[in-house]
Design goal:
Elements: E1 3-7, H1 13-26, H2 33-44, E2 51-57, E3 60-71, E4 78-87, H3 96-110, E5 115-118, H4 125-132
């Protein structure tokens, strides 16, 4: 089945929310509705650095990649941060995750960004198998402080 990756449009909100709900359920996270609404608003704001790529498998929405680029102190250009990657349970193992990452690699190269990076839960073995097929972990541990 053909996998198509494209930018999100305002008409995609209901399908993105369905996938987003699946993503939050996978990680057992409950977000206030206003956070999800604010995220969607950012995704639709052309001035926002947060962007959304959607994967369709045939005519069904199968996954997404939220990403943003930013300047880096380690290269003379920008990096791309893959903030959230999700594949619907029905589409896992069908190449959707790989297609989303390949799409971001191509997008980053086309825009002259220097690096692509992401994080994942250490217990997410299935995702880590996919990620390890691209590159080894660089050994960094994330620290996050709520303010």
């Amino acid at each position: 089945m053909t996998i198509t990756i494209r930018d999100a449009t305002p008409d995609d909100e209901a399908e993105w929310r369905r996938l987003w709900d699946g993503y939050l359920a996978f990680y057992d996270i409950a977000l206030a509705p206003e956070i999800t609404a604010a995220t969607w608003a950012r995704l639709m704001d052309p001035a926002s650095p947060l962007k959304l790529r959607l994967a369709l498998r045939g005519d069904r929405f199968a996954g997404f990649a939220l990403h943003q680029h930013h300047p880096s102190s380690w290269v003379a250009g920008d990096d791309c941060y893959l903030e959230d990657l999700f594949v619907d349970a029905e589409a896992r193992g069908s190449g959707v995750g790989r297609a989303l990452i390949d799409d971001l690699i191509a997008l980053a190269r086309a825009r002259g960004w220097h690096r692509l990076y992401w994080h994942t839960d250490e217990g997410n073995a299935r995702a880590r198998t996919l990620y390890d097929s691209y590159t080894a972990s660089d050994g960094h541990i994330r620290y996050r402080m709520r303010l």
